[in-house]
Amino acid sequence: MHSMTEPITDAWHAELAAQPFEEVYRRLEETVSQLEQGELSLTDSERLYVQGMELAHRCQQLLTETELRITQVGEPDDGRSTASAPASSASDDCSVASRDNHVLRVGWFSTGRGEGSRGLLNFVCQAIADRRLDATIDFVFSNREPGEAAGSDEFFRLVQQYGIPLATLSSTRYRREHGGGGMNRHRAGFDRKAMRLLEPYQPDVCVLAGYMLIFGAEMCRRYPLLNLHGALPDGPTGTWQSVIWQLIESGATRTGAMIHLATEQVDRGPVLSHCSLPIIGREFDADWEAVTDSGIKELQAAEGEDNALFRRIREEGYRREPHLLLATLRAVADRRLQVRPGEALDGDGEPLAYMYRQGLPLTDEIEARSLPKRRD
């Protein structure tokens, strides 16, 4: 019988590591129950809370290991093995369990921080369910773990609703357990551990959708990593917020979004596709006029992201980004595009940049076929 407030020692960790999921989960339930009773001293409550976090983390590790023990079910014509994933009760399952040998296999990386991450995943899963995209999502990987943040927990629930295998590895915990400091010093080790978790899967492409870490060289060589960046290929780099402020500061007349292959050089890998839109004209004139006599620092301090021009540029880009991602995945599924780690090729296997220096121009397709018409 465990003392609920015993100190966490190496022996405590060793015992925990040897226990099956059922026992760890039982201990976690007991811990939560005792905390909820509120009868402990402050010191014992703090100690019990730390124990609870350790138990929750171990439960997640065991669940992830179980999910990744996939069963080999056959050999496709190209010699690669296929696998079954955990069954799902979701009627619109877009996981590996529903695929055949000819669909595009997609891996999905996301920190899952907020509405944008959920929106992109939901958009693509709905396209798969509606047969607008011949693909399946083999796995979702996050650098957060359950219980780490409310936003990512909501994202994880969406993943589970779609029946997609979920693998998590907390970058925050990894840094803490390996001496602290910034992610730069831990990137290679973290990526290797993530790749070991994902070894059972063989995605054709991977999507970075709100993934808040930069990949190292090994990860970029392992997977073709499609990154959505909210700017044109020759446009600003950085976060979407930084991009918009740079557009305003330079008085830009156009912006857009692109899909490029992730490399160690941030936002500058080979471009697969792009779409563009004007940010001048009748809808924008009044907002541009309002910032004419203000410097960027002044605007950021006074209004920040509530500035009308900032919000309008973001809204117009945000409406198009999911459609650009979907159109690009369709181009890969249809073999109009071929992707390999670090390489963007056309349907004939030639470098895409020979014909399309800025990737496939998908503006017309998105505006005419995909983008819902706005009501004035």
Characterization of the model:
Residues 125-282 form the Formyl transferase N-terminal domain. Residues 74-94 are annotated as: Disordered. This protein is α/β, with parallel strands linked by helices and 376 residues long. The protein folds into 2 domains: 10-67; 80-370, Rossmann fold. The chain contains 13 helices and 12 strands. It has an 8-stranded mixed sheet with strand order 5-4-3-6-7-8-9-12. Strands 1-2 form a two-stranded antiparallel sheet. Strands 10-11 form a two-stranded antiparallel sheet. The chain starts with 9 loop residues before the first helix and ends in a 6-residue tail after the last helix. The model is unreliable at 69-91 and 96-101 (pLDDT under 50).
Which CATH top level class of the largest domain fits?
A: Alpha Beta
The total of helices stands at 13
Helix and strand pattern: HHHEEEHEHEHHEHEHEEHHHEEEH
Q: How many separate domains make up the residues?
A: 2
Proportion of helical residues: 40-55%
Strand arrangement, major sheet: 5-4-3-6-7-8-9-12
Taking pLDDT < 50 over at least 5 consecutive residues as the criterion, the unreliable ranges are: 69-91, 96-101
CATH-level-4 superfamily name of the largest domain? Formyl transferase, N-terminal domain
Report the span from N to C terminus: 68 Å
Structural class, by secondary structure, is alpha/beta
CATH topology of the largest domain: Rossmann fold
